[in-house]
Fold this sequence. Notes:
The protein is mainly α. It is built from 6 helices and no strands.
Amino acid sequence: MDEPLTSATPVSHADWANSNLEKYKRSEEARQHSKVIRNETIQVVEDQQIKTNRSQNEASDKLNDRASDITTWKNNLQRELLALVKETEDLRMTRRELEHAIEQAKRPEEVVNHCVSARKCRIGIDNVTDAVQIALTEEMKEIKRIQQAMSQHHDDIEGQILKNESVAEQLKVDLRQKARALDIDQTCFSLDNTSHEMKVHPGVHKAELTVSSPESWTKFSDKNIEDSNNARTASAELRGNVDGLLSSACTELMTAWSVSNRSFKERVMETEETQGLLSKNLLETSKELEDLGDHIRILKKALDEKRPPLKVAETRLALRTHRPILEACDDSPQGKLVDEVVEINDSINILTQKLSDAESARAQLLKAKAELREDLRVKETSLTIDRVNCLGPRLRFPYNQRCSNKCFYKWCFNIASFTMNREAGGLHLADTDLRQ
Length: 436
C-alpha cells in the first residue's frame, strides 16, 4: 500500500503518474475476478438446485416406500393382536371353567373332611387306623391329586394369561410406535417447499437420532409376531389339557367314594362287637375298686391308732428334757422311750407307704374305669358318627355335587352325564346295603 503523500515528502510527476496507473490496474483485476465469480456462481446455483430437487424427490420416494412397509407390518401386527386377544379370551373362559370345577371339587372334599373330623372324636383304643380311615385317606389323596392338578393348571393359565397379555402389550406398543412412525413419515412425505410447517433446525442432521437398523427393525416386529404365535399355541394346548382333566376327574372320584362307603359298614359291625368286652371290663374294675376302698379304710384306721401312742412317748421324752443337770441321765427309761418313738414312726411309715400304694392303685383303677367309660361313650359316639353323620351325606353323593340343574359348566355337565350313564346302565350310585 502506498504511503500517503505529505508536504514533508514531495514526489515527482513521474511517481505521481505511476501511482495512478497502478491503482487503475488493481481496479481492473478486481472487476475481472468479480465477473468470473458471478459466472461461476450462476452455474453452481443451477447445478445445486438440480441436485437438491433430485435429492428431495429421492427422499420423498423413500419416505413413501417406508410408509408402505410400515403399513404392511402394521396390518400383520393388528391381525396377530386380534388372534391373540381372542385366544386369551378363550383361555379366560377355560379359567372360569376350571375355577368352577375347583369350587365344586370342594364338595366331596368337605364330605371327606366331615367324616375325618367326626371320626377324630374317637379316643383311646377306638382311635385306630382302620380300613375306613385308610379308605378316607386314599379318597382324600385322590381328591387332593385332582385339586392339585386343577390348581397347577390354574397357575399355568394365570401365567399364560400374563404371558399373553405381555405379548399383546408388546404388540400394542409396536403398533402404536408404527402408527406414530407412519403418521410422521406420511407428514414428512406431504411436506414440500411451500409448506407452512417448515422451520430451520440447525445441526439436526448431525444428531444421533436413530436406534435401529432396517434389519433390526424388521427382526423386532417379526419376533413380536413369533412370540404371539408361540403364546397362542401354548394357550390352546393348555386349554386342551384342562378339558381332559375335567372329563376324567368325576370317574376317579366316584371310584374312591365307593371303596370308602363299603369300609364304613364293616367298621360299624366291628365296633359293635367290642362294646361287650368293654362293658365286662368296666364291671370287674368297679368291683375291684369297692374291695380296694375297704382296704384303704383299714389302713387309715391303723394309722389313726398309732398317733396316740406316739404322742405319749414323745411327750414323755419332752418332759424328761427338763430334768436337772446330773439327773438328765441316759437311763433305761430314756432308751426305751427313744426306741418306742422310733418303732412307732417305723410302723407309721410302713402303713403310710401301704396306704400310698393303695391310693395309687385306686387312682389307677379310677383312671382305668374312666377310660373304659370313655371308651364305651366313644364307641357309641363312633357308631353314631359312622352310621348317621358320615354315611348320610355320603349316600347323597354325587347328586349333591352339581351346583344346580341349570348349570352347564363342564364339571357339572360331566357329573350329570356320569350319573345318567350309570342309571341308564342299571347301576346304582349308592350302596343300598348301607341304608339299612
